[in-house]
Protein: Flagellar secretion chaperone FliS
Amino acid sequence: MSYKAINAYQKDSLKQQLVNADPHKLTLMLMSGAIDRLAYAKGAIDRTDLVAKSEYLSKATAIIINLRDTVDIDVSPEFGSNIVALYNYMLELINQANIENSTSEISDVIGLLAPIRDAWASIPKSEIESAYQSKSA
Structure:
């Protein structure tokens, strides 16, 4: 099977996941996607592939901006403000890593984002459903 066929299959699979995903699943996919792009950027820096580094960091930045901009501060103002500030800090670290071609800042961002993703993934399905029901009521 060719790489082109594999890529087409993966894109179709991703599109299907997106169509069927609820907001919780979408957020989880975004967090995982950001971590993946950051890891790819680290590899690009190690290979001194500056074009790939820029592409991956740009994609990770766009994802984190999206995550930051979708925080519902009204639900919990203190938590919402803190998570927005954390996302802004991650964006600063990514920018610094891009300028300095440094993997340490990227590792720091992954270290901050991975526990959030893991906590998000561990939310029980019953709690997710309860939150959606109360939100729509």
